[in-house]
Amino acid sequence: MANFLLIAICIMVGLILRRYTKLPHDAYKGVNALIINLALPAVSFKYLPHLQWTRAMILPAMMPVVVWLCGWLYIKVYAAKAGLDRQTESGLKLVTGLSNTSFVGFPLIAAYFSDDALGIAVICDQVSFMLLATAGIVVAMNASEKHTLSAVMVMRKVVSFPPFIACVAALILPLFIDLSPLDPLFDKLAATVAPLALFSIGLQMKFDGWRHQVKHLSVSLFYKLVLAPFIIYGIVLLFGMRGIIPQISIFEAAMPSFLTAGIVASEYNLNPKLSSLVVGISILVSFFTTALWYLIIATLQ
Hints:
This protein is mainly α. The chain has a single domain, classed as Na+/H+ antiporter like fold (Up-down Bundle), CATH 1.20.1530. It has helices at residues 2-20, 28-47, 58-82, 86-97, 105-112, 118-143, 151-159, 162-172, 183-190, 193-204, 214-238, 244-253, 259-267, 272-297. The radius of gyration is 18 Å and the shape is globular. The two termini are 22 Å apart.
């Protein structure tokens, strides 16, 4: 119950402060900077050195890739039928095919499962970011009229991202150095992810003008919150998987749109209004749909 109250309180505080105080419109960027540069790296150091690596870990690593590829094709077909312009199509590809596996995923996993399950979620999150920083940027730049695609720039974004650096370090350093004395520090820093991320979401959520975008919104939300986790659920059933790893993989696939994907869509002018609406509304609706998915995947114990 405490975790669910944490989710509600932090988001509501963010919404209230954004609406009724004179905070700068981009105040969330400072919160995000703390999360990205300190809290998320601490999560990697807290969990990755202690994970038991098995073949089952292939599933959480492949889940974001499967969701992205299927989402790309899904939007491609929809765009052709609906006659979408290139910018709108690309914006929808970004926010439909990439999941919010950390800012929303981590707090919800802690609430429904346990903090220990976050180690599996970290794998999903790192792959999700790498997809955004590579395939996502390629999609954005190909559709943008003001940017030129550069492989060097794409790789620079990947290797300079603090959570990615921390992920690599958390996998390599324990082979040479005993980091266990720092575990209490990592515990405390990692504990800040949920409240800070939820507060940041509250500061960014906007719903103005959604009635004019109902068709595009419904198509995107159906894939992101229903079809994507169903695809991963089907793979799990096909291979007869059981246990916490497939449960977390499906649950992470059911997460709403990636906040950063919406920011990228805005940066490259890929129908930023629609992209922001998909992100905001998917987060709100996901609090209900993830509850249903939790009941479904509970049978995979």
